[in-house]
Write a structure and sequence with these properties.
Layout: H1 2-5, H2 12-26, H3 53-63, H4 66-128, H5 132-163, H6 167-183, H7 188-214, H8 219-231, H9 236-252, H10 264-291, H11 298-301, H12 304-332, H13 341-360, H14 366-405, H15 419-441, H16 455-458, H17 460-484, H18 498-527, H19 538-573, H20 588-605, H21 626-629, H22 633-637, H23 646-658, H24 673-693, H25 699-716, H26 723-739, H27 749-758
Length: 759
């Protein structure tokens, strides 16, 4: 390994061995001369001409061990590599020697040529030395003559350009000669040329100004005119005003004309393609001419870009204000809410195209004003959707009222829907309509809409616009409009059907228990509402809905109670109770009261649960008359009872009332059937009691009241939460009739029961 990596000349013994091998290879002796020694005939001499590899290998295999063979192989490999290196080096040196030889010949030839050229050049210079100054002088005279020729031909050249309307060439030629003519204007010949050029250029400037007044030039021609006039030292401020004045008419005339019968998207497209595009072209041309133009010489000191930029901002703001006014007026005409996608696409295109102005004119307020128009349009759209939802709600209630007023045919195929069906249908209609509106409004926040990434549409639009302005406002509207049905005047509760009051109370109660939470959760998830600003909590809306439900149910109880009370009052006030005949049956009005109460019980049971009742006694339907007269029995049967002894009667009555529970007639009802029926029956019987207290009765009149009250007791106890309430009020009615009776002779209980059972 060491011999393979060590350079050949680092070891003296190794160096001598290498020299010896080289001499042997080339057939040299120690003195470096070729030897005449006979060639070796040994076939095993690896350096001889008669070397035989097979014989050599066989000899090695027979004479050497395996280790010696491997060492011998390693040694031969090293020798082969070294000899190859020597051969390569020798070839390289031989080639380099040949190349250098050739290069030396070429350099000698080049040197000889250079010497010849130098000698020839010196000879030419010596020959032309006297004529060089003359040639230089003649060249200068030729150049001067060409310039003078250009100056003398300039008026004709300018006239020719004026005839051909080659204004740019004329201005360029005049600018080349203007300084020279000004410099030599004291010379008559040059003065004449200058005057002729001045007249011609004045005509040219007049024709360029005429292009502004004609207004028929294209934007490119107009730009060329302005550029040429600036080169002719026209006042920059005046040119700015003329340019903007011409651009004003060419930009506004195509678009700002009245257009009828086009939808909003077509209108915005036309505005963008005709007005916004033209405005952008004007801005770019104006900036290129007056703002971005390099200022040289006297123009640099006039600060033209700042002046021109101010005029451009005023021009753009004025035109944009007029354009925005038309756009807003057209947006306000979009009253229909059936398809919101057309409006959103139009607003997106409007907003997208205005961004080009912000890139062309940084600092312009036009893009932000356009964004404000989009924001106002979105707000107005929410108001329109809220109004549409309110109208839909009123229309739905109208349909419900018509369904409630329709005659009911039990066998008809298109029978009127029941209250639960109407409630479910109304609730689903409202919810589906609200979902449809939310889907339409959600288009404003779609990812492919450019203005949806604006701060307003990410925050305030979702929270204050959609959640508060649309959803919460609509829920509050439902509660408020439902409460308005409770403000009807009159004994019969106005024109509102009692069934509608019951249905709306259940609707508001359902909203309180589940619907409000569902709607607001849906809104928050769909619009990713982030409550950075104060919003109405769910609990507050639920409380408002429950309050509305409570008020509606209370009003329902009042209305139904007053309807039955009206029948009872008329039945009492229109009868002569002193001269009436002996009772033989129950009055029809009492049967009607029981029938109506049963109907109300069925109606309420369709929407509300049963509720809790107190335990009933086993003889609730067979209470005897003594139930009603237990406190007055002594009065009615005492021999001392006469109209002249009212003190004892009133005393016993007052003592009885002291030990009776106070009954709150118009107390709030609970959300169950038993509580509702209890409230209605309390109002009805209390009215019956007050009417009886205002009448005077004969013997048969008192007995008729006994029969009627017993009939009511047989049926009404099962509807209320506490049967003692019915017993107490009916007892009060009979007792009051006895107080007002001229001949208080009660009917036998057995007779009363027979009459009531007979119906």
């Amino acid at each position: 390994m060491s011999s393979a990596t060590t350079p050949p000349d680092s070891d003296p013994s190794q160096r001598r061995r290498v020299h010896s091998m080289l001499k042997h290879y080339y057939g040299l002796n120690e003195e470096g001369k070729v030897t005449e020694q006979a060639e070796s005939l040994d076939p095993c001499d690896i350096n001889g001409p008669h070397f035989d590899p097979e014989v050599y290998l066989n000899k090695l295999r027979m004479e050497c061990s395996l280790g010696e063979l491997m060492d011998h192989e390693s040694c031969m490999v090293k020798q082969i590599r070294f000899i190859n290196f020597i051969c390569l080096s020798t070839d390289t040196i031989r080639k380099m020697k040949n190349d250098f030889k050739k290069m030396e010949d070429e350099m000698d030839c080049l040197s000889a040529n250079m010497a010849a050229i130098t000698e020839f050049s010196a000879h030419i210079s010596g020959t032309l030395q006297d004529q060089h100054a003359q040639i230089t002088k003649l060249s200068g005279v030729h150049t001067l003559l060409r310039k003078l020729q250009f100056l003398f031909e300039l008026p004709a050249r300018l006239n020719k350009c004026l005839e051909l309307q080659a204004y740019a060439q004329a201005v360029s030629a005049h600018r080349r000669a203007r300084c020279v003519l000004q410099q030599y204007s004291h010379m008559p010949s040059f003065r004449g040329i200058q005057d002729d050029c001045h007249v011609i250029m004045e005509q040219l400037a007049q024709q360029l100004r005429q292009k502004f007044r004609d207004g028929g030039s294209s934007a490119k021609d107009l730009s060329e005119c302005v550029e040429l006039l600036l080169q002719l030292d026209e006042p920059a401020e005046e040119l700015c005003d003329k340019f903007l004045s011409h651009a004003h008419s060419s930009t506004t005339n195509p678009f700002l004309s009245p257009t009828a019968g086009t939808d909003i998207l077509e209108f915005i497209d036309r505005g963008c393609n005709e007005f916004v595009s033209s405005l952008c072209l004007v801005i770019a041309s104006y900036q290129e001419l007056f703002i971005n133009r390099p200022q040289e010489g006297e123009l640099a000191s006039k600060n033209i870009p700042e002046m021109a930029n101010g005029k451009l901002h005023v021009f753009v703001d004025t035109l944009a204000a007029r354009y925005f006014s038309l756009v807003e007026r057209r947006i306000q005409e979009e009253k229909g809410v059936s398809d919101n996608s057309l409006l959103v696409r139009a607003l997106d295109r409007f907003h997208r195209r205005l961004q080009a102005i912000s890139k062309l004119l940084p600092g312009s307020a036009v893009p932000s004003q356009g964004t404000e128009i989009v924001v106002r349009a979105a707000r107005e759209r929410i108001k329109q959707y809220l109004s549409a939802l309110q109208t839909f709600y009123h229309d739905s209630l109208t349909d419900v009222r018509q369904a409630l007023a329709a005659p009911r045919g039990a066998t008809s195929k298109d029978a009127t829907p029941s209250l639960p069906e109407l409630l479910t249908s109304l609730s689903n209609f409202i919810l589906n309509q609200l979902k449809s509106v939310l889907a339409s409004v959600h288009l404003f926040t779609a990812k492919d809409i450019t203005f949806s990434n604006k701060p307003y549409f990410k925050g305030e639009f979702c929270s204050q616009g959609v959640r508060e302005g649309l959803v919460v406002s609509f829920i509050k509207f439902i509660c408020q409009s439902s409460r308005q049905y409770c403000e009807s005047a009159g004994d019969r509760g106005g024109s509102t059907p009692p069934a509608l009051l019951l249905l709306l109370s259940r609707l508001c109660l359902d909203y309180e228990t589940s619907t409000i939470s569902y709607i607001l959760t849906l809104t928050d998830e769909q619009f990713l509402v982030q409550h950075h600003t104060p919003v109405t909590p769910v609990t507050a809306l639920c409380a408002e809905a429950r309050e509305a439900a409570q008020k509606l149910l209370n009003h329902y109880v009042k209305v139904q109670g007053l309807i039955i009370s009206q029948m009872l009052r008329k039945s009492v006030e229109t009868r002569d109770w002193v001269n009436t005949i002996e009772p033989r049956n129950v009055r029809a009005v009492m049967k009607r009261v029981v029938e109506d109460t049963t109907s109300i019980d069925v109606q309420v049971g369709l929407l509300y649960e049963e509720g809790v009742r107190k335990a009933h006694s086993s003889d609730s339907s067979k209470r005897t008359f003594s139930v009603y007269s237990s406190s007055r029995q002594q009065i009615r049967y005492a021999p001392s009872y006469t109209p002249s002894a009212p003190m004892d009667t009133n005393l016993l009555s007052n003592i009885h009332k002291l030990f009776s529970e106070r009954i709150d007639i118009f107390s709030p009802v609970e959300f169950n059937k038993v509580s509702v029926l209890t409230g209605i029956i309390k109002i009805s019987l209390k009215t019956f009691l007050e009417c009886v207290r205002l009448r005077t009765f004969g013997r048969y009149g008192l007995q008729q009241i006994q029969v009627d009250c017993h009939y009511l007791q047989m049926y009404l106890w099962r509807f209320v939460s506490d049967e003692n309430l019915v017993h107490f009020l009916l007892d009060e009615i009979v007792g009051s009739a006895a107080h007002r009776c001229l001949d208080p002779s009660p009917m036998e209980q057995s007779v009363i029961e027979v009459i009531c059972e007979r119906g």
